[in-house]
Specification:
The structure holds two protein chains of two kinds. Chain A is α+β, with helices and mostly antiparallel strands. Chain A has helices at about 5-10, 20-30, 85-90, 110-120, 120-155, 165-170, 185-195, and strands spanning about 30-35, 40, 50-55, 60-65, 70-75, 80, 95-100, 100-110, 160. In chain A, helix 1 (about 5-10) crosses helix 2, helix 4 packs across helix 5 (about 120-155) and helix 5 crosses helix 7. By secondary structure, chain B is of the alpha+beta class. Chain B has helices at about 5-10, 15, 20-25, 85-90, 110-120, 125-155, 160-165; strands at about 30-35, 40-45, 50-55, 60-65, 70-75, 80, 95-100, 105-110. Chain B has a four-stranded antiparallel sheet. Chain B has a four-stranded antiparallel sheet with strand order 2-7-4-5, with no helix packed on it. In chain B, strand 4 and strand 5 form a beta hairpin. The chains are: A alpha+beta, B alpha+beta. At the A-B interface, strand 4, strand 5, helix 3, helix 5 and strand 9 of A face strand 4, strand 5, helix 4, helix 6 and helix 7 of B. Strand 9 of chain A pairs antiparallel with strand 5 of chain B, so a sheet runs across the interface.
């Protein structure tokens, strides 16, 4: 993939829109394209070796529960940063990320990310930090919506006072209940569907 | 012993305490304080205000919405941060209602003050961004772990008990 094309993809990331094209092209030089088919991109507990930009396809995020089971907790869609937590903390992967079918990614080695964040030009490092903030906050918001959907399912939510704004009505569609609510698999799929806004 | 001042409490909050002294000294004076009475709404979901807030005193409830229902997602207290998403993303809107559970004092930082630091490539802008990243990744880890455990509980039939512990007793139909 050409550097100009990578720079154009990077510019679509929230937080990077106002970065000068010459700086995006400089950043683009540190990314390599990778395609994964139905395999783990990274596993929970592994050392973090890269930061990813999901450019096409879909990724699923599995988190290990306190009981030691891997649970599907999020779907990720392009264009978004993936693998920010471990790269930022310098620790190990905190979740397993899989491509259920296929996914195209841009990959930046973790040491380059850390060097970029700590020593590179402020004009590049600051937007990258903001892009990480927006991506991480988006994933946190997804997790919270799913937790909320569980509360709604159990009748633990309350009627919200006051009208919703137009944007929020569009963003907060009620969950579509599965045909068989007693089937945990069906409920999980419905929750994930609601969270992804599908 | 006298109570710590609002400035001292702000400087000692998780957002600012970990910063280097130069960054903290540059940021603290840029915050303004505001007080709210119990029951007042500080943030309305869907609105476009973008201040970053640090709770200095009191407690607040965070409600997110699902259709025309809302659920209490968290209760915040001194040192907690509100509004980091809209603060850093001009295209974002508020995603939750935040309501004062008690009388509350918050310290606010405007996006303009931060942008001004950023334009000057002031180290405080970098420090603030870095610290917000750290706080967010910690919250994401905690939320994903909670979610995985709730899904476990769903399969074992213990979900209702677990989630009732998070959200309190069912209250469908109430209009607090």
């Amino acid at each position: 993939m050409k550097r100009e094309e990578i720079a154009r993809i990077l510019q679509a990331l929230p937080g990077l829109q106002d970065v000068a094209p010459r700086l995006l092209q400089s950043m683009a030089g540190h990314f390599e394209r990778q395609v994964v088919h139905g395999q783990p991109l990274c596993r929970e507990g592994e050392e973090a070796d890269a930061l990813y930009v999901l450019t096409a396809g879909q990724l699923d995020v599995y988190k290990r529960s306190d009981q030691g089971n891997d649970r599907l907790v999020a779907h990720l869609y392009p264009v978004t940063l993936v693998g920010t937590v471990a790269v930022v903390t310098g620790g190990r992967r905190t979740a397993t990320v899989m491509a259920p079918t296929w996914a195209e990614l841009l990959v930046m080695p973790a040491p380059v990310v850390r060097e970029l964040l700590e020593t590179w030009d402020f004009e590049v490092a600051s937007p990258l930090r903001r892009a990480i903030i927006v991506a991480t906050a988006g994933q946190l918001s997804q997790a919270n919506r799913t937790i909320g959907a569980l509360a709604v399912e159990l009748g633990l939510a309350e009627v919200a006072p006051g009208p919703l704004t137009h944007d929020l009505v569009a963003a907060a569609r009620p969950m579509e209940l599965p045909a068989n609510p007693s089937d945990p698999e069906a409920v999980e799929q419905a929750l994930l569907k609601a969270r992804a806004g599908v | 012993m006298p109570e710590p001042s609002i400035t001292d409490r702000l400087a000692g909050s998780p957002l600012l305490a970990a910063l280097d002294a130069e960054s903290r000294d540059a940021l603290v004076p840029l915050f303004t304080t505001e007080t709210f009475s119990a029951g007042e709404r500080l943030v309305t979901a869907g609105s476009s205000d973008r201040d970053l807030m640090v709770v200095v005193d009191g407690s607040l409830h965070v409600f997110t919405r699902e259709g025309d229902l809302r659920y209490r997602l968290a209760t915040l207290g001194p040192g907690d941060v509100i509004g980091e998403v809209a603060f850093f993303d001009p295209q974002a809107y508020r995603t939750a209602d935040v309501v004062a559970a008690t009388d509350v004092v918050v310290a606010k930082l405007s996006p303009d003050a931060y942008v001004n630091l950023r334009r000057r490539a002031h180290p405080a802008a970098s420090s603030l961004e870095t610290q917000v990243v750290r706080l967010l990744v910690g919250r994401l880890q905690a939320a994903d772990t909670l979610l995985a455990t709730l899904l476990d509980d769903h399969r074992s039939g213990r979900l209702a008990l677990s989630i009732a512990g998070l959200f309190g007793a069912p209250s469908v139909g109430s209009t607090s």
